[in-house]
User: Fold these one by one.
Assistant:
Number 1:
Amino acid sequence: MLTLDHVRKTFNPGTADAKLALDDLTLAVNDGDFISIIGANGAGKSTLFNAICGSFLPDTGTVTLDGADITMTPEHTRAKVIGRLFQDPMRGTAPDMSIEENLALAAGNGGWLSRVRARDKLEFRDRLAQLGMGLEERMKQPVGLLSGGQRQALTLLMATYHVPKVLLLDEHTAALDPGTAEKVLAMTRSIVEENHITCLMITHNMQSALDLGNRTLMMDHGRIIYDVTGEERSTLTIADLTDKFRQLSGKALDNDRMLLTSERHSEKGR
Amino acid sequence: MTLDKWLALGQTALELGLVNSLTVLALFVSYSMLNVCDLSTDGCFTLGAAVGAVVAMAGYPALSIPAAMLAGMLSGFVTAVLQTRMGVQSLLAGIVVNTGLYSVNMAITGNKAQLNMNKTDTVFTWAKELLQGTPLAAQYKLVVELAAVALVVVFICLFMSTKLGLAIRATGSNADMVRSSSINPVFTTTVGLCVSNAFTGLSGCLMAQQQKSFDINLGQGMVTVALASLLIGGVFFGRSRSVPLRAIGAVIGAFLFRVVYALALRLDMPAFMLKAVSAIIVVIAISGPYLKKQLPLMLRRFRSGKGAKAC
């Protein structure tokens, strides 16, 4: 179980640019939860992920994972049990290195001076084949030659190579074309379900926020303003969500992309 | 010019090229793999030379080589700590260490700007004695240097395919990805710079012992010369992704640089022009591809006759 207990973070404190990014945020994520997170730009969604990953030290509050306080644990140590995908497909892979070499680092088998063995290569091949993108035939090629969708799929494979306790998806399909986005999303879903990974996903697509997972969070001004699960969630529509947002935050949802996608979906519905 | 003279010219170029190629290989690790431009190279080269000279003159020729490499490693460690732990920008960290090393080097030589090793036993005099009477007797310098370069190339090839080597390469390519693979980029940067500077130290040590003298300015401009050689070498195997081929390319680059320089000297170019030539080569090699990309745009501006004045 992952918990954030009264986490607060102010960026540029004491200056005119001071921004309260996380406002006394408390969240308990149950094992096996698949949570979708929505909210306007600057609501603190990515900052929440940064707090979980350890990209910064919160001003106050603690982060606990499976009973252990990891607030002070450095980012790269947490990465052993927390996987993360970014919107930018370029961020998760080393472009100058081959697919095989990237996977070797993600696998991290053996000591510092160990090399990639034939056994590892077979395993990489197997795993790549499961993505269904033909990447297993291109293991020696540099990752820089792959398309955005292929790179994101590879990043997903790398982040889940050793099943993480928590997987954080930060709009990981937003930069992909619709067809590829769907494919990567389906891939994500099957990997997460197969391995029972606890997963948090930021999305601007309200429909997939409701379709995917078992719980939805709405964030505004560094706080969670709406946390819905179970039966109440299963009857929610996009219109309900935008209404809810207006009612809870006292303003209209001002995320352009979010509005665009919700419009697109309501048009489809008509 | 007679054949003998050409051969002598080739041999000198090869001797100097091989010694320099160790520094080029060091930059291959730091610049090409780790993507750090290590400006402490000049000072570190002199440091290796100073330590190598002092230890050899104290009567320990065998010890001089590991001592010079260890000194280089320490210097690399300081550069790495400055840029990873103390918030000094990467380029500045190198410059600062380079400046500091001048004093360190003078302290090592006991405040002497020059040391004479004419009567000192070194690995080169050992090789000379060992090879006496064999067909290789005249090439004793080449034998020692070839052995050193071969060992370093083999080491780099083996090292870069280990998990640590891959992590160092990934740090140069995408540090975010390294962190998410639960590897600390601070650690990989530190190891990379230590390894790289150990080679720079070795290079300086062999240079001083080969020419039987040490000079405090031995390493001046070395980073530019080595970078020029690395970029020349990149012309051959730069497109290749294979580490062994690129490492060999770096060695060839160092040799070619020396050949060009030796030829230029033959054409009565004064020796002091070496640094200018290397600076120009670096500029051409780095800005060439950029200018090539800009050329169509510049031509269009020029043809339309408007240029920058229009705005």
Number 2:
Amino acid sequence: MDTLKQKILTIIEKNSRIDMKELAVLLGTGEVEILNAMQEMQDEGIICGYHTMIDWEKTGIERVTALIEVRVTPQRGKGFDDIAERIYKYPEVDCTYLISGGYDLMVILEGKTLKEVSGFVTNKLSTLDTVMSTATHFILKKYKDHGTIMTRKYEDQREIVSP
Amino acid sequence: MENRKVLSDKTVGLKPSGIRKFFDLVSEMKDAISLGVGEPDFDTPWHIRDEGIYSLEKGRTFYTSNSGLKELRQEICRYMKRTQDIDYVWDKEVFITVGGSEAIDLMFRAMINEGDEVLIPQPSYVSYEPCAILADAAPVIINLKNENQFRLTPEELEAAITPRSKILVLPFPNNPTGGIMEKEDLEAIREIIIKNDLYVLSDEIYGELTYTGKPHVSIASLPGMKERTIVVNGFSKAYAMTGWRLGFACGPQEIISQMVKIHQYAIMCAPTTSQYAAVEALRNGDDDVRMMRESYNERRRFVLHMLNEMGIPCFEPMGAFYVFPCIKEFGLSSEDFANRLLAEEKVAIVPGTAFGDSGEGFLRISYAYSIDNLRKALTRLSRFVARLRETK
């Protein structure tokens, strides 16, 4: 990957709303080069979406995030891919990762009520043939997410003028 | 004792700092946005802070040797080798100071006899001239020019030299102009320095922050220069460690040993906690420096772009984190401009004259701020400038 693309990704990973003109200024290049690079990366599936980071806790809306460890029996010739697909096709699933170590798949459900999560685990996930066991963890507090510290705001503590 | 004076004439006679005056003015204003800060906006990288905390937990709360921790001096030697290809002997040619500024003071005091001249290019950092005066030197100011991008030219240097010239201060990359001296610029003055038997105080505190794509070159790395140069550097700018107060000096043993003598009587040693943290900075901090440099460079381009849109002329500064635009078209002094900008738009930008008379007609804009903050402040500047032009 060329360095321009890498630099674009570093910036938009933190601020996907940045104006393309401004991005060109910051990186000392033309807007056309930026737009082309962005288009290419979208076509290649490197850029997969532009999401918004929300601290739901501050909205007062009741939501939980559940991390579910899933142990499965891999299938001959297919490994874990088929079972992963069966799981991630549920719209309530936000993330599905294949994990090394004590269990096989990490499934993340975000923004559901406790009832929805338990319903999903007992009725859908556990009943799949290849699923051997599940362990569900609920997130109690988010301190830092996607590199952003959720618990405190940046405050400039410097003297206002200095040599 | 009727005629006894309470205070020293020399100290009382020092000019009050222009920055201080401006600071007092800004402090009175509650919600001013500042572009006036001379230090990074980054926190010290966590692994460096963590090492400082760890040293406290381990009870490393005693003095170090006067010259500083052996590990730190050795790391500094490795740093000078890998960045400048200069070999320094860790226990003879290197020592640790309380910030780069202490080293400036010590070099003058170690070398000056009354009336020796110190050549000081300006605009530059506020300490050189007063420290030279306190050491009984006669400061000789070299006024750098915008059209040379505030580099020191051989002609300017030659014109300032007298038989009493002893030390040349080389403050590059420069605060407040952002100007740098590249290898060929240094080569152009090297022979003049040697021919006139000058010593050099090379203040390289911003050495890690250059944006040409080529690393900073120290004049000490040129032939015949190591033996007549004190390289002053530190951790404040490169590693965002201003509050830790830690710097170092490298140079010929003959001079360093006398600097250490004063340091040992006046200071004892640099803060121990800071020294342990600095070892970590030099061992594992390269990525942090790269990340911060990249970020400063983005902001540098952003500020230059906005000034360009306002039609305010500014040479492209390639170092430190300052731009130094020219405001002569408005017919106001730097101070008047800065004061009015503060009063009318609540933006604090330091007048160029805080860094020497040759800063007249210029402002120092620091870009050690978030893009949002820069945009907000520069939008106000743009409004102010438009108003000035209308009423002209």
